[in-house]
Write a structure and sequence with these properties.
By secondary structure, the chain is mainly beta. Helices cover 3% and strands 60% of the residues. The protein folds into 2 domains: 78 residues, no CATH class; 71 residues, no CATH class.
Length: 151
């Protein structure tokens, strides 16, 4: 974790919401910034609770657990893609909406960072796939189809 502006993380803590969770602002050596709740553990300082992280054009605002994005949040990548929904241990997991810069969008269930479960994918060209997704692919009932051409 980074050092808080103006001193140690404990020195910058303000308005603790419980005995173990504090809040503050941290600036990393590469210029990335975290502002929000954290806790001090034997392993060091960890983002934990609600907070915002920004590293240039990449941002995340939402819940953290043990220094990982975990719970409900909103992530924006440096490419302009966005995800709003549930995360588990840093991966999309649960219900969420992912929007690509080309206009494509998936709304539905996620598991371990992949479209997985019931959902709806609309391509940038307007083609829509509604139904069951399995490990990132659309299940036609006869075959699994890649709906997102990454080429």
């Amino acid at each position: 974790m980074a050092q808080a502006e103006g001193g140690s993380p404990a020195a910058e803590a303000a308005g603790a919401s419980s005995a173990s969770v504090k809040s503050g602002k941290f600036v990393f050596g590469d210029g990335a910034v975290y502002e929000g709740e954290f806790r001090e553990t034997s392993a060091g300082v960890q983002r934990h609770g609600e907070g915002s992280y920004s590293d240039g054009a990449e941002t995340y605002t939402g819940s953290w657990e043990s220094d990982e994005m975990h719970g409900r949040g909103e992530y924006r990548s440096a490419t302009g893609a966005t995800f709003v929904g549930e995360l588990k241990e840093g991966l999309y997991d649960g219900h969420g909406v992912y929007s690509w810069p080309d206009g494509a969008q998936y709304t539905g269930e996620w598991q371990a960072g992949l479209m997985h479960g019931e959902g709806s994918y609309r391509s940038g060209a307007g083609v829509t796939w509604v139904g069951t997704f399995y490990r990132g692919r659309y299940d036609t009932g006869k075959a699994y189809v890649d709906v997102r051409d990454e080429k």
